[in-house]
Amino acid sequence: MDSSIDEVAAQPGGADRTPPATPSRPPSPPMPAPTEPPAGDGSGTAPGPASGTAEHDGRAAPVPAAGGEDDAPGTAPASGTTETGCPGTAGLAAGGAAVTGTAVTGTGQDSGSGTGGGRGGPPTSLSPSRASDFMQCPLLYRFRVIDRLPEKPSAAATRGTLVHAVLERLFDAPAGERTAPRAKALIPGQWDRLRETRPEVTELFADDPDGERLAGWLAEAERLVERWFTLEDPTRLEPAERELFVEAELESGLRLRGIIDRVDVAPTGEVRIVDYKTGKAPRPEYAEGALFQMKFYALVVWRLKRVVPRRLQLVYLGSGDVLTYDPVPADLERVERRLHALWEAIRQATETGDWRPRPTKLCGWCDHRAHCPEFGGTPPPYPLPVGPAGSSGTG
Ligand code: SF4
């Protein structure tokens, strides 16, 4: 197998961030840069698959638990990061392409609402999390995007945010100092920062006066951080971007946006998109769902840079798995068609006010059951004008 993509580690001192403007996958010459260990050497990174095929290391794992981070359809509510500022770091700039790439220092949940700003606005863009919401349950999408109903922070999602922040900040250190003890030492400071920026997370431990639950929660964050070192070697990585906010407008006018945990760019220009998950890897039959978010990002990067990312990599810290996928243009075109269909469905629901509940076992983790007709609740008054097609009554 071609192992070069496992070596998409940018050189210290700056990699070539301007890959050739080609929509096809570049060849895979050996990388001259310092690299990650080759596939199959015990690094935990499975050998790369053949073009256009998903690969899973075969370890069975349950669907991510409640509050887990998987944005994919069919999983628990998403968490992630929020673009909370720090503008000015341009990323993934491509010649001639309209680029919005901003490194963010977010520690909050991905609002990803795609609303025009303000409560009650119609959706104007799509993020992977919100696309997954609509696929899971249109009414859930409405509650989150249009009504913007508040949600309680969850311990698992908040821990995911904390771990993401630690992994991001670790790359501030010189390569040789990116050790597990150093990473673990970042946890208290990042937890303090998270409490400052999102005071509501302190509610999680309001009923924990002796700090026992908090200590266990932080210990689990340490374990997740430690496990990362069994999967990747940060002393041999120099990310081109971390926590990168990307946004692209498709020809149809649909705006896609999201935050990519890490972008590695090899000296050859090959791009690897990396996402950390603090939950467990999905079973192989759910891998496609897990990859939806990554293909979404790959489509955005393709549209911005005019180059198809060479590899998509999901790093599951909860189970110690790495799921990789090497996309081809046809994959991303399929995702684009799917997103257009989704957006049309969202547009129709927005106009008609017909946001149907779609109950599944995931309802158990939904914060909005009190407003959901499936659970005897009543949605708040629909805040948008309803078109001539009328409403089905959920709004
Ligand atoms: S509780 Fe209702 S709104 Fe929430 S996911 Fe289930 S069906 Fe959708």
Automatic annotation (TrEMBL):
InterPro entries: PDDEXK-like_dom_sf, PDDEXK_AddAB-type, Restrct_endonuc-II-like. Residues 1-89, 102-131 are annotated as: Disordered. Signal peptide: none annotated. Residues 20-37 have a biased composition (Pro residues). It comes from the Bacteria. The keyword Transcription regulation does not apply. SUPFAM superfamilies: Restriction endonuclease-like. Residues 109-121 have a biased composition (Gly residues). Residues 125-373 form the PD-(D/E)XK endonuclease-like domain. Keywords: ATP-binding, DNA damage, DNA repair, Helicase, Hydrolase, Nucleotide-binding. The keyword Magnesium does not apply. This is PD-(D/E)XK nuclease superfamily protein. It comes from Streptomyces cyanogenus.
